[in-house]
Amino acid sequence: MVGQDPMTNRKRTLLILGGTGDALHLARATEEKWGSELRVIYSLAGVTHNPARTVGEVRVGGFGGDEGLARYLRDQKIDFLIDSTHPFSTQISRHAALAAAATGTPRCALLRPPWQAEAGDHWHEVVDMAAAAMLVPKLGSRIFLSVGTRSLQFFSELREIWCLVRLITPLETPIPLLRAKFVMGRGPFDTASERRLLEQHRIDLVVTKASGGEATRGKIDAARTLGLPVVMVRRPDPPPGEAVGSTDAALSWLMKELKS
Ligand SMILES: NC(=O)c1ccc[n+]([C@@H]2O[C@H](COP(=O)([O-])OP(=O)(O)OC[C@H]3O[C@@H](n4cnc5c(N)ncnc54)[C@H](OP(=O)(O)O)[C@@H]3O)[C@@H](O)[C@H]2O)c1
Predict the structure, then answer these.
(1) Which residues form the domain of 160?
(2) How far apart are CA 69 and CA 62, in angstroms?
(3) 48 in the same domain as 101
């Protein structure tokens, strides 16, 4: 039994820090591959009220900082930790790195590669949201603002700019944008439907995080086909430590750890 601790016969436990499509895929794949041999706990922050369904054990809510997470790792006897949170979720990833170091828990980050610009793309890469907001008025006036609800505040001073914002769930707090339309939708989004959305709203600029991944690259491909510029907010640096770029590579890492 690959998931069994050979010394104690205890079923070993993997904690997946989730909230992304990759994390869901990984949780399903570990379930398929190791089934009842390995205990898999899938952790969500609890920010989305109707999260996508996963398999197995799910826990919801913050841990209480890196110390809270370290306590959780000890209490739940976590053997392996895979941080498959979003590349812009810097706080939880930093906590994961600190907590894993404090408890000696093997940790791997699953970070999908960022998108690469192709011929026909007109990207303007910026270091952060504040820089994106400064650049917007020079490039467009009707923007598709695809940056996550917490980052909308950076664009609140742009009173002349009309914004299209897509939400997964309705907002509970007012949005700090003067001229905006909200549409509801959960990925994946294909290029054709993204192109229709951009055309329908006469969008002349796309603003996005360099998230990477297939589920949300439709807007980038659609912008290229329409010849639209894109403001691409660069990723923050991840904490140091082992990292892989795909769920297959994360499964290989886990397999190696299970055998060691
Ligand atoms: N940021 C994005 O663009 C984005 C996009 C898609 C999905 N998500 C997902 O949304 C969630 C929150 O993202 P964020 O950017 O707000 O994170 P963040 O700023 O890095 O983390 C804020 C706090 O939320 C809690 N938290 C975050 N992820 C958690 C998880 N998977 N399980 C348990 N607690 C978690 C932690 O609270 P404590 O300190 O109390 O432990 C953390 O300190 C993550 O799961 C992420 O994968 C984020």
Answers:
(1) 122-233
(2) 8
(3) yes
